Amino acid sequence: MSAKLRAQGARVLSAVLDEGKSLNEALPAAQASLANPKDKALLQALCFGALRQYRLLEAAIDQLMDKPLKGKTRILQRLLVLGLYQLYFSRIPAHAAVGETVAAAPLLGQGKLKGLVNGVLRNAERQGEALLEKAAKNKAVATLHPDWLIARLKAAYPSNWQDVVEANNQQAPLWLRVNSRQGDKTQYLDALSQAGIEAVSEESLTCGFYLAEAQDVTALPGFAGGAVSVQDGAAQFAAQLLAPVDGERILDACAAPGGKTAHILELADAEVTALDVSEQRLVRVQENLARLKLSAKVVAADASQRDWWDGKAFDRILLDAPCSATGVIRRHPDIRWLRRDQDIAELAALQARILDNCWQMLKPGGTLLYATCSVLPQENREQVKAFLARTADAELLPIRDDESAQQPGWQLLPGQNKMDGFFYARVLKKP
Ligand SMILES: C[S@@+](CC[C@H](N)C(=O)[O-])C[C@H]1O[C@@H](n2cnc3c(N)ncnc32)[C@H](O)[C@@H]1O
Prior knowledge:
Helix 15 links the parallel strand 6 (271-276) and strand 7. By secondary structure, the chain is α/β, with parallel strands linked by helices. Strands 5, 6, 7, 8, 9, 10, 11 and 12 form an 8-stranded mixed sheet that branches. The chain has helices at residues 3-17, 23-32, 37-52, 54-64, 74-89, 94-107, 114-127, 129-135, 139-143, 147-156, 161-168, 185-194, 233-242, 259-267, 279-292, 335-338, 343-359, 381-390, and strands spanning 175-178, 199-201, 208-211, 228-230, 249-252, 271-276, 297-300, 314-320, 362-372, 394-396, 410-412, 422-429. It folds into 3 domains: 3-144, Orthogonal Bundle (N-utilizing Substance Protein B Homolog, Chain A); 175-230, Sun protein, domain 3 (Alpha-Beta Plaits, 2-Layer Sandwich); 236-429, Rossmann fold, CATH 3.40.50.150. The radius of gyration is 23 Å and the shape is globular. It binds S-adenosylmethionine.
């Protein structure tokens, strides 16, 4: 519980909000500077929480300041966000939250403005809940989302956009997938129960369940030996719907970090090519497969090109496309601040290019499963509808009864069955 931890927290928030870095990128480096594992965990909790509540905390700070902190002093706005988060949303005693946050100002090269930080935090402490209540009177602020995203959610889900918003603002449970090569779900749930760990099975998933309370996964029975992997329930439908068969050639076109590649290989003795454009992210694929004692052909290449391909058609293709990730905001609260409205059209164009290219590598009679962790129709239903319209040999294989070429695919919304938001559409290449 140190000033250094608060200074690192302000730097992480600045990396996300000012430099467009993801929490996954910014947090590990900041954590590495802290020796104590408890401090590392606290830093993570504060940064995740502060980004989740950012819009409210920003509005509250604006109420307490005469003029905004700009230029080099902008880092102090980030520090104040962290300070207010501790006061309102953590169990840290107020005197420690204020004292350590004020003491972080000099560590950020802003020692002269220590008094300002102290004044703002003391003022917030005095006003108590009334400060946040006033900030939350602004309905846009109360959503904790940027305006552009709310506008898109309202357009896509006129009657239930608020449910999506509410789910995005919750913390997600810890979902796990049993490695079917090592045992089945019932056996694993028994082992957990014997270890005194409460788990909830999801009947629609052959291998999936979530824990009643999050815990260190490395301490779960058999984790190191690959008995179980972390994967949201919604993501587990990918391999389940792809339904791989022994001996098939399968392309996982956007594979890193490899959660779905591993699941496919757990379900069948297939010849899987795990492709991703990011060499760095492919290291994670190798690590995941090694832990699970599985193997795939791992290729660093662009899925919108075929220069890497040996010309042998695939029986099945999973295209888990790069997307806005607007379905997984509850797990990644930084996404709402990293994405921009204009990104959506660019992502949709990239998805269409990858989709058209993958189609050329699929056998007649083969199936392609298109997936995203987005909730936006432009990347999902509209994307697949346009693909079906321009691709003569493509036929929708409905996952749900209510699908048609005009309304293709299955949209899962965040929070439903405690899962992330995901989209799936299955397409057959006509023989
Ligand atoms: C949604 S993530 C994939 C998650 C992965 N399927 C899993 O389950 O672990 C999307 C991936 O697409 C990759 N990607 C982005 N553009 C790509 C492209 N043009 N070709 C191949 N991969 C790409 C990204 O590097 C990222 O790893």
